């Protein structure tokens, strides 16, 4: 059953990812970069929080690339997204992988209202730059986390270097992503995301960049946060 949507949805973004849904698990498709950075995302999360035996929610899970990796580490994982075609692919892939993930078509805000303070770990990766009101999603992620729980974000900073690399480079020159994947105005500077997190009652513990090596075409963690970056936050205990 599909849950009621909130206004914090961009139908064009949903349609964009729905058209590519069948390619989510093709590691040589437009989703190749997500497969390449997934070990970095997983390792970053594990730096701060154990996963085995913990309740984890993956907000904006898409086809389930990160959700399944979290499940493989022993977490009880819920993945939520509003792109129904992507969720269908995610569910079908479970039949192949044997992993266990509960997928739901529901907005983060609705999930937070229904299940507040339920999760030890909340992940929200590569989503904030695709929604009209990222602060609303940040607030929902904070609401979903248990007191003392961890919330992880990843997104793209907004500056000329990010425009050159994430849009002109990745989409137009190198063809790593389909053209039109990102909209520059929706990128968030680390300072802006930090402010949203603090306003939602989260403590920003760490900010780390992700760099790309053109020579060997690999991604790596970096102290440079001016393009792609991840943020680890912790929800305060009452």
Plain-language structure description:
This protein has 238 residues and is of the alpha/beta class. The protein has one domain (11-235): 3-Layer(aba) Sandwich (Rossmann fold). The protein has 8 helices and 8 strands, in the order ααβαβαβαβαβααβββ. The chain has an 8-stranded mixed β-sheet with strand order 3-2-1-4-5-8-6-7. It is globular. The model is unreliable at 1-6 (pLDDT under 50).
User: What is the helix tally?
Assistant: 8
Give the ordered list of helices and strands.
HHEHEHEHEHEHHEEE
The CATH H-level homologous superfamily: Vaccinia Virus protein VP39
As for the CATH topology, it is Rossmann fold
Q: Indicate the radius of gyration in whole angstroms.
A: 16 Å
How many domains? The number is 1
- What fraction of the residues are assigned to beta strands by DSSP? 25-35%
Overall average residue pLDDT = 87
In whole angstroms, the N-to-C terminal distance is 35 Å
The helix content, as a percent range, equals 25-40%
- Write down the CATH class: Alpha Beta
Provide the spatial order of strands within the biggest beta sheet: 3-2-1-4-5-8-6-7
The helix-and-strand class reads alpha/beta
Overall 3D shape: globular
From the coordinates shown, what is the CATH architecture? Answer: 3-Layer(aba) Sandwich
Low-confidence stretches: 1-6
The total count of strands amounts to 8
Major sheet attributes = 8 strands, mixed
Keywords: Methyltransferase, S-adenosyl-L-methionine, Transferase, Ubiquinone, Ubiquinone biosynthesis
Protein name: Ubiquinone biosynthesis O-methyltransferase
EC number: 2.1.1.222, 2.1.1.64
Function: O-methyltransferase that catalyzes the 2 O-methylation steps in the ubiquinone biosynthetic pathway.
